[in-house]
Amino acid sequence: MSVAAVIPGSFDPITMGHVDIIERAASRFDQVTVAVLENPSKQPLFTIDERVELIEGTVAHLGNVSIARFRGLLVNFCNAHGIRLIVKGLRAVSDFEYELQMAQMNQRMGDVETLFLTTTPEFSYLSSSLIKEIARFGGPLEGFVPDAVQKALRGRLGDDLSP
Ligand code: PNS
């Protein structure tokens, strides 16, 4: 039986923490879909097209990973694509409460199970919002995000450096 999994997120932008989870999921499941949330009520730093392009460039070496966009409920996306498994990274206890709630709700609403991979420790403190803050103030990004993302962040936030 072929097992398909979805890795959902905003990916604004993709970090090495995301890459780690995507690579590990790709080595365990037959097909992995990275589902990028298009949320009209949020103001992301990168447009949906930019986020997808940055992910594409980052996961091109993984033959069983594809990228999709979604709006609305994740369970609807899963059901429409015949996916019954969500994979997520768990960084710390602080992630747990909200993730547990969403996992239980997704199980209840759509019969979609959530599997948590514990984040590789060197990435456990990484988040897209922290990365954007570091970039905004000209801090180091090496090792935290893929090279293309570094470039995109510098290009987008380069003029915004504080003294
Ligand atoms: O990268 P993020 O922003 O932490 O990812 C959160 C995401 C996109 C996985 C989550 O907000 C989500 O699944 N949103 C879609 C709407 C939905 O299904 N909400 C959960 C209801 S239980």
Radius of gyration, taken over Cα atoms and rounded to an integer in Å: 16 Å
Q: Ranges with pLDDT <50 over ≥5 residues?
A: none
User: Could you estimate the helical fraction of the residues in percent?
Assistant: 40-55%
Please count the beta strands (DSSP E, at least 2 residues each): 5
Helix and strand content put the structural class at alpha/beta
Shape: globular
Please indicate the percent range of residues in DSSP E strands (runs of 2 or more): 15-25%
Give the SSE string: EHEHEHEHEHH
> Which ligands occur here?
4'-phosphopantetheine
Total count of helical runs of at least 4 residues:
6
Strand order of the largest sheet: 1-2-3
Mean pLDDT: 94
Largest sheet geometry: 3 strands, parallel
Measured distance between first and last alpha carbons: 57 Å
Please give a handful of descriptors for the protein shown:
163 residues, alpha/beta, three-stranded parallel β-sheet, two-stranded parallel sheet, 6 helices, 42% helix, globular, binds 4'-phosphopantetheine
